[in-house]
Specification:
Layout: H1 7-17, H2 29-43, H3 47-59, E1 70-71, E2 76-77, E3 97-98, H4 104-116, H5 120-131
């Protein structure tokens, strides 16, 4: 927002979008960025995982983890535990499969491997997964 806006006018749109409980503290990412990098490098965890740990340390609060999704080598299985799954090798084509930029290097290796072996279906699948990630 530009121009001569009062503090109240600048805050009003944001407060209408999101109203947080009084006991919620917002931690600016710049306060914990260095610690996030340390955690990610030392423990080979995702950026999101490192952010959670660093914020937990900063707030001196317990870290709560949602364990509903199962981590795979190149993403997550979001299938509810109550639903049975008899497959072990078709995850990337399943509607419950989810991936993110943290898995980009693995997906690229899988794509190169499939291309090298002339496995066009697999190469196309991994190519679509890579294309669907945030650009970088």
């Amino acid at each position: 927002m530009t121009g001569a806006w009062s503090t109240e006018q600048r805050r009003a749109p944001g407060s209408k979008l999101l109203t947080l409980p009084e006991n919620v503290e917002i931690v600016p990412i710049r306060r914990i960025a260095y610690r996030m990098a340390e955690i990610a490098a030392a423990h080979r965890v995702s950026t999101l995982g490192a952010e959670c740990v660093a914020a937990s340390e900063h707030l001196d609060a317990p870290l709560l983890v949602w364990s509903g999704d199962r981590m795979l080598g190149n993403g997550y299985c979001t299938r509810p535990v109550e639903l049975d799954c008899a497959f072990e090798t078709i995850c990337e084509g399943c509607t419950y499969f989810a991936t993110s930029i943290e898995f980009r290097p693995t997906l690229r290796r899988q794509h190169r491997d499939a291309t090298k072996k002339n496995q066009t279906g697999r190469a196309e699948l991994f190519g679509k997964l890579i294309d669907g990630l945030d650009p970088s």
